[in-house]
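Predict the holo structure. Ligand: adenosine-5'-diphosphate.
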Amino acid sequence: MFSKILIANRGEIALRIIRSAKELGLKTVAVYSEPDRNSLHTMLADEKVCIGPAKAAESYLNIPNILSAAEITKADAIHPGYGFLAENPRFAEICETSGITFIGPSAEVMSIMGDKSRARQEMKKAKLPVTPGSDEVIADIDDAKKTAKKIKYPVILKAASGGGGKGMRIVRTPSALEGQFSIAQYEAKAAFGDPSLYMEKYIESARHIEIQVIRDSHGNSLAFGERECSIQRKHQKVIEETPSPFIDEKTRRRIAKAVEDATSFIDYQSLGTFEFLVDDQKNFYFMETNTRVQVEHPITEMVYGIDLIREQIRLAAGERLSPIHDFRMRGHSLECRINAEDAETFIPSPGKIEFLVLPGGQGIRVDTAAYQGWVIPPDYDSLIAKIVAVAPTRREVIDKMRTALEMTTIVGIKTNIPLHINILSNSDFKKGRYDIQFLENLLEKQVKKRRT
Ligand code: ADP
């Protein structure tokens, strides 16, 4: 086992990792940018090192500074969290060559799965169904036209190096293709430094279903029950739940088996998530693999009673998966992502938290780095807390979550809590009747109503 872990991240996920590391008896090192000097993760880790100014490119993405911090503090492993360098195979490789364990899969697997177009090809070989689409990156507009004609409109253009819902364009008619193709290329280049695009059939009324998987270096793997992440805005998840109200036991087993087979095929070692679109006929199509811990991992932890980050750290040290007695989901769990933003305009709302009351009680878990008096810097993601609830049934967990949100007070900044309450009170949501367009449609309807 390691003796000291450096956490190359900030915010709630840095704290989350510190907790599991401490429980395992490991020392922790926090790294931080200048505006994060008073962040909770710097106070709760055993050591802290400043790695640069506010700009992520000069701090949380600054590989030389992070490695120097690891060397100075004699950390023997680095946990990347999510975002920043978490899916950067070059970083993983540099860690390995510096004799520091990168807590995640091998750089080789990361580089295959990080290129969405290559990942599709590889998963096809692993017999995982993928959405109909281009097998290679689209060379030019003529190639795009040919591919779209073959797979039929509507189609979706995606950045090969994409993530976070950026660089995606839905194209419904041939006349719109040329314009959308240039915009998507431009966005992909601006956001990821790589203009490569690929194309998929756009699946209407789909649901986003994902499978958490964990596999050790001895070939033991576990695929957990699905997380339903269809409540999205701008292709970004807002609420997640497990189990999905839409997936039956037979489909659940089928997807889990396909994922376990795919992980063995690529010899995936570590924690990861396979994302799928599921159509109304319950056909599932592979979208991508996230080779890291995900924001929404707590809901799986809540229904399985497992600490996924503890397992991820243990596996990186070469240990075997913990034997799990009676492996099954218990109850229903929901997560609401609380962002510092206006609930109607979605404009970020950084600033000082003047007063803070967080919810609690049976079945409530809050993962956050927020505290009263903390000044949220404008430089990073607006996620400030994850409220997670678990209860025996879906109905009870919705009631529990709504109550928790109503009992939360955050003064000084705006948050999207009203949006969450709005969704949880919706009768279709309550019935489990929703797909990936649900939230955008709901918002559109409400805007129209306000205008009239
Ligand atoms: P990112 O890595 O940027 O998050 P994903 O490939 O995971 O991108 O897709 C994000 C979301 O975009 C999905 O959850 C889904 O809502 C939507 N999406 C992606 N591909 C398709 C598709 N082929 N058809 C319909 N919706 C899609």
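Residues 207-451 form a domain with the D-amino Acid Aminotransferase; Chain A, domain 1 fold (CATH 3.30.470.20). The radius of gyration is 21 Å.
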